Amino acid sequence: MVGGMFLPTQKVLDFPITALRFDDQIQTILKWAIARESKTVCVANVHMLMEAHWNSEFASVLQSADIVTPDGMPLVWMMRQMGAHYQDRVAGMDIFLALCQQAQVQNISIFCVGSQTEVLSRMRKRLEQEFPRLKIAAMEPLPFRPLTETEDEALINKINSSGAGVVLVSLGCPKQENWMAQHKGKVQAVMIGLGGVFPVYAGIQKRAPRIVRDLGLEWLYRWIQEPRRLWRRYATTIPPFMWLATKQLLLSSPLRGVFLNGTGD
Protein backbone atom coordinates (compact mmCIF):
# COMPACT_ATOMS: atom_id res chain seq x y z
CA MET A 1 0.00 0.00 0.00
CA VAL A 2 1.06 3.61 -0.59
CA GLY A 3 -0.45 6.37 1.52
CA GLY A 4 -3.03 3.88 2.80
CA MET A 5 -4.04 2.82 -0.70
CA PHE A 6 -3.31 -0.39 -2.58
CA LEU A 7 -1.40 -0.03 -5.81
CA PRO A 8 -3.52 -0.70 -8.90
CA THR A 9 -2.86 -3.99 -10.67
CA GLN A 10 -3.83 -5.69 -13.91
CA LYS A 11 -3.96 -9.48 -14.00
CA VAL A 12 -1.91 -11.30 -16.62
CA LEU A 13 -2.34 -15.11 -16.45
CA ASP A 14 -3.93 -14.65 -12.99
CA PHE A 15 -0.92 -12.74 -11.62
CA PRO A 16 -1.29 -9.12 -10.48
CA ILE A 17 1.10 -6.85 -12.39
CA THR A 18 1.43 -3.32 -10.98
CA ALA A 19 -0.50 -1.01 -13.32
CA LEU A 20 1.41 2.24 -12.81
CA ARG A 21 3.57 4.23 -15.21
CA PHE A 22 7.34 3.90 -14.92
CA ASP A 23 7.89 7.15 -13.01
CA ASP A 24 5.12 6.34 -10.52
CA GLN A 25 6.64 2.93 -9.77
CA ILE A 26 10.08 4.52 -9.23
CA GLN A 27 8.65 7.18 -6.92
CA THR A 28 6.84 4.50 -4.91
CA ILE A 29 10.06 2.51 -4.48
CA LEU A 30 11.94 5.68 -3.43
CA LYS A 31 9.31 6.53 -0.78
CA TRP A 32 9.67 3.06 0.71
CA ALA A 33 13.46 3.26 0.50
CA ILE A 34 13.59 6.58 2.38
CA ALA A 35 11.39 5.07 5.12
CA ARG A 36 13.47 1.84 4.98
CA GLU A 37 10.36 -0.30 4.67
CA SER A 38 10.79 -4.02 4.08
CA LYS A 39 9.29 -4.46 0.60
CA THR A 40 9.79 -6.77 -2.37
CA VAL A 41 9.81 -5.80 -6.06
CA CYS A 42 9.65 -8.52 -8.72
CA VAL A 43 10.62 -7.55 -12.28
CA ALA A 44 8.44 -9.84 -14.35
CA ASN A 45 8.79 -11.24 -17.84
CA VAL A 46 7.28 -14.24 -19.66
CA HIS A 47 9.73 -16.65 -18.02
CA MET A 48 8.78 -15.49 -14.51
CA LEU A 49 5.03 -15.74 -15.15
CA MET A 50 5.37 -19.23 -16.57
CA GLU A 51 7.49 -20.32 -13.57
CA ALA A 52 4.68 -19.06 -11.34
CA HIS A 53 2.01 -20.72 -13.51
CA TRP A 54 3.70 -24.11 -13.10
CA ASN A 55 4.80 -23.76 -9.45
CA SER A 56 2.22 -22.91 -6.79
CA GLU A 57 4.85 -21.98 -4.20
CA PHE A 58 6.47 -19.52 -6.57
CA ALA A 59 3.01 -18.24 -7.55
CA SER A 60 2.42 -17.23 -3.92
CA VAL A 61 5.79 -15.42 -3.89
CA LEU A 62 4.73 -13.38 -6.92
CA GLN A 63 1.25 -12.71 -5.56
CA SER A 64 2.61 -11.44 -2.24
CA ALA A 65 5.20 -9.07 -3.79
CA ASP A 66 4.61 -5.36 -3.15
CA ILE A 67 5.32 -4.43 -6.78
CA VAL A 68 5.46 -6.68 -9.85
CA THR A 69 6.73 -4.60 -12.75
CA PRO A 70 5.98 -5.41 -16.41
CA ASP A 71 9.52 -5.93 -17.70
CA GLY A 72 8.68 -7.98 -20.80
CA MET A 73 6.86 -6.21 -23.65
CA PRO A 74 4.34 -9.09 -23.99
CA LEU A 75 3.17 -8.23 -20.44
CA VAL A 76 2.84 -4.55 -21.37
CA TRP A 77 0.82 -5.42 -24.49
CA MET A 78 -1.43 -7.73 -22.46
CA MET A 79 -2.04 -5.03 -19.83
CA ARG A 80 -2.96 -2.48 -22.51
CA GLN A 81 -5.38 -4.93 -24.10
CA MET A 82 -6.93 -5.65 -20.69
CA GLY A 83 -7.58 -1.97 -19.92
CA ALA A 84 -4.33 -0.41 -18.63
CA HIS A 85 -4.11 1.67 -21.83
CA TYR A 86 -1.25 3.94 -20.75
CA GLN A 87 0.98 1.23 -19.30
CA ASP A 88 4.63 1.53 -20.26
CA ARG A 89 7.47 -0.90 -19.79
CA VAL A 90 9.12 -0.98 -16.35
CA ALA A 91 12.30 -2.88 -17.19
CA GLY A 92 15.08 -3.96 -14.87
CA MET A 93 17.89 -1.89 -16.41
CA ASP A 94 15.73 1.24 -16.54
CA ILE A 95 14.70 0.74 -12.89
CA PHE A 96 18.36 0.33 -11.92
CA LEU A 97 19.52 3.50 -13.71
CA ALA A 98 16.59 5.61 -12.46
CA LEU A 99 17.11 4.46 -8.87
CA CYS A 100 20.86 5.15 -8.97
CA GLN A 101 20.19 8.63 -10.36
CA GLN A 102 17.55 9.42 -7.73
CA ALA A 103 19.35 7.70 -4.84
CA GLN A 104 22.38 9.98 -5.14
CA VAL A 105 20.09 13.04 -5.07
CA GLN A 106 17.96 11.79 -2.15
CA ASN A 107 20.87 10.40 -0.12
CA ILE A 108 19.67 6.78 -0.32
CA SER A 109 22.40 4.13 -0.24
CA ILE A 110 22.25 0.88 -2.19
CA PHE A 111 23.40 -2.63 -1.25
CA CYS A 112 24.10 -5.24 -3.97
CA VAL A 113 23.64 -8.93 -3.15
CA GLY A 114 24.57 -11.88 -5.36
CA SER A 115 26.42 -12.26 -8.68
CA GLN A 116 30.20 -12.77 -8.87
CA THR A 117 33.07 -10.70 -7.50
CA GLU A 118 34.32 -9.73 -10.98
CA VAL A 119 30.87 -8.55 -12.07
CA LEU A 120 30.40 -6.52 -8.89
CA SER A 121 33.82 -4.88 -9.12
CA ARG A 122 33.15 -3.85 -12.74
CA MET A 123 29.75 -2.51 -11.69
CA ARG A 124 31.27 -0.50 -8.86
CA LYS A 125 33.83 1.07 -11.21
CA ARG A 126 31.13 2.14 -13.69
CA LEU A 127 28.78 3.35 -10.94
CA GLU A 128 31.52 5.54 -9.47
CA GLN A 129 32.03 7.11 -12.90
CA GLU A 130 28.36 7.60 -13.83
CA PHE A 131 26.90 8.32 -10.38
CA PRO A 132 29.78 9.84 -8.38
CA ARG A 133 27.58 10.88 -5.44
CA LEU A 134 25.84 7.50 -5.13
CA LYS A 135 26.37 5.81 -1.78
CA ILE A 136 27.21 2.12 -2.25
CA ALA A 137 26.79 0.51 1.18
CA ALA A 138 28.34 -2.81 0.06
CA MET A 139 28.48 -5.40 -2.71
CA GLU A 140 28.22 -8.97 -1.46
CA PRO A 141 28.62 -11.95 -3.81
CA LEU A 142 26.85 -15.04 -2.46
CA PRO A 143 28.04 -18.66 -2.75
CA PHE A 144 26.03 -21.02 -4.99
CA ARG A 145 25.16 -23.13 -1.95
CA PRO A 146 22.47 -21.93 0.50
CA LEU A 147 23.79 -19.80 3.35
CA THR A 148 23.91 -21.33 6.82
CA GLU A 149 21.60 -19.78 9.41
CA THR A 150 24.57 -17.99 11.01
CA GLU A 151 25.77 -16.64 7.62
CA ASP A 152 22.28 -15.48 6.76
CA GLU A 153 21.86 -13.65 10.08
CA ALA A 154 25.24 -11.98 9.55
CA LEU A 155 24.17 -10.82 6.07
CA ILE A 156 20.84 -9.46 7.36
CA ASN A 157 22.66 -7.57 10.14
CA LYS A 158 25.18 -6.18 7.65
CA ILE A 159 22.43 -4.91 5.35
CA ASN A 160 20.38 -3.38 8.17
CA SER A 161 23.34 -1.76 9.94
CA SER A 162 24.57 -0.30 6.63
CA GLY A 163 21.54 1.97 6.44
CA ALA A 164 20.84 0.96 2.83
CA GLY A 165 17.35 1.81 1.59
CA VAL A 166 17.55 -0.35 -1.54
CA VAL A 167 18.90 -3.91 -1.85
CA LEU A 168 19.54 -5.03 -5.43
CA VAL A 169 19.47 -8.83 -5.69
CA SER A 170 21.11 -10.83 -8.50
CA LEU A 171 20.54 -14.56 -8.07
CA GLY A 172 18.48 -15.34 -11.18
CA CYS A 173 14.78 -16.23 -11.39
CA PRO A 174 13.19 -17.76 -9.32
CA LYS A 175 16.01 -17.94 -6.76
CA GLN A 176 16.22 -14.17 -6.20
CA GLU A 177 12.45 -13.78 -5.79
CA ASN A 178 12.39 -16.64 -3.26
CA TRP A 179 15.30 -15.02 -1.40
CA MET A 180 13.45 -11.70 -1.20
CA ALA A 181 10.24 -13.37 0.04
CA GLN A 182 12.20 -15.22 2.74
CA HIS A 183 13.82 -11.97 3.91
CA LYS A 184 10.70 -9.80 3.91
CA GLY A 185 10.28 -8.39 7.42
CA LYS A 186 13.93 -9.15 8.20
CA VAL A 187 15.75 -6.86 5.77
CA GLN A 188 14.74 -3.24 6.43
CA ALA A 189 14.96 -2.04 2.82
CA VAL A 190 13.26 -2.36 -0.55
CA MET A 191 14.54 -5.56 -2.19
CA ILE A 192 14.51 -5.64 -5.99
CA GLY A 193 15.33 -8.71 -8.11
CA LEU A 194 17.52 -7.53 -10.99
CA GLY A 195 19.30 -10.74 -12.06
CA GLY A 196 20.17 -9.99 -15.69
CA VAL A 197 20.98 -6.32 -15.09
CA PHE A 198 24.28 -6.86 -13.27
CA PRO A 199 26.30 -8.53 -16.10
CA VAL A 200 24.89 -6.08 -18.66
CA TYR A 201 25.78 -3.01 -16.60
CA ALA A 202 29.20 -4.53 -15.89
CA GLY A 203 29.80 -4.73 -19.66
CA ILE A 204 29.96 -8.53 -19.80
CA GLN A 205 26.75 -8.80 -21.85
CA LYS A 206 25.16 -6.29 -24.23
CA ARG A 207 21.69 -4.82 -23.92
CA ALA A 208 19.48 -4.94 -26.98
CA PRO A 209 19.09 -1.67 -28.95
CA ARG A 210 15.94 0.33 -28.15
CA ILE A 211 14.19 -0.58 -31.43
CA VAL A 212 14.63 -4.29 -30.62
CA ARG A 213 13.31 -3.74 -27.06
CA ASP A 214 10.29 -1.76 -28.28
CA LEU A 215 9.40 -4.52 -30.75
CA GLY A 216 9.42 -7.05 -27.89
CA LEU A 217 12.35 -8.96 -29.39
CA GLU A 218 14.85 -8.54 -26.56
CA TRP A 219 14.49 -12.27 -25.83
CA LEU A 220 15.77 -13.02 -29.36
CA TYR A 221 18.72 -10.67 -28.91
CA ARG A 222 19.63 -12.39 -25.63
CA TRP A 223 19.15 -15.83 -27.19
CA ILE A 224 21.69 -14.97 -29.91
CA GLN A 225 24.16 -13.97 -27.17
CA GLU A 226 23.59 -17.09 -25.02
CA PRO A 227 21.98 -19.77 -27.24
CA ARG A 228 23.04 -22.83 -25.22
CA ARG A 229 21.79 -21.42 -21.90
CA LEU A 230 18.55 -19.88 -23.12
CA TRP A 231 17.15 -22.07 -25.91
CA ARG A 232 15.40 -24.51 -23.58
CA ARG A 233 13.94 -21.70 -21.44
CA TYR A 234 12.47 -19.91 -24.45
CA ALA A 235 11.27 -23.08 -26.17
CA THR A 236 9.39 -24.16 -23.05
CA THR A 237 7.97 -20.78 -21.93
CA ILE A 238 7.10 -18.70 -25.00
CA PRO A 239 4.63 -21.07 -26.77
CA PRO A 240 2.58 -21.88 -23.63
CA PHE A 241 2.53 -18.19 -22.65
CA MET A 242 1.18 -17.26 -26.10
CA TRP A 243 -1.54 -19.89 -25.76
CA LEU A 244 -2.58 -18.82 -22.24
CA ALA A 245 -2.44 -15.12 -23.11
CA THR A 246 -4.58 -15.62 -26.22
CA LYS A 247 -7.11 -17.61 -24.16
CA GLN A 248 -7.25 -14.84 -21.53
CA LEU A 249 -7.80 -12.14 -24.15
CA LEU A 250 -10.55 -14.14 -25.88
CA LEU A 251 -12.35 -14.86 -22.62
CA SER A 252 -12.22 -11.21 -21.55
CA SER A 253 -13.19 -9.66 -24.89
CA PRO A 254 -16.68 -8.37 -25.85
CA LEU A 255 -16.89 -11.40 -28.17
CA ARG A 256 -16.83 -13.74 -25.17
CA GLY A 257 -20.57 -14.44 -25.48
CA VAL A 258 -20.14 -15.33 -29.13
CA PHE A 259 -17.38 -17.85 -28.34
CA LEU A 260 -19.05 -19.36 -25.28
CA ASN A 261 -22.69 -19.36 -26.34
CA GLY A 262 -22.30 -20.02 -30.04
CA THR A 263 -24.51 -17.03 -30.86
CA GLY A 264 -22.42 -15.86 -33.80
CA ASP A 265 -23.79 -16.20 -37.31
TrEMBL record:
Q: Kindly list the GO molecular function terms attached to this UniProt entry.
A: hexosyltransferase activity
Question: Secretion signal: which residues?
Answer: none
Q: What is this protein called?
A: Glycosyl transferase
Q: Does the keyword DNA-binding apply?
A: no
Write out the entry's keywords from A to Z: Glycosyltransferase, Transferase
The species is Nostoc minutum NIES-26
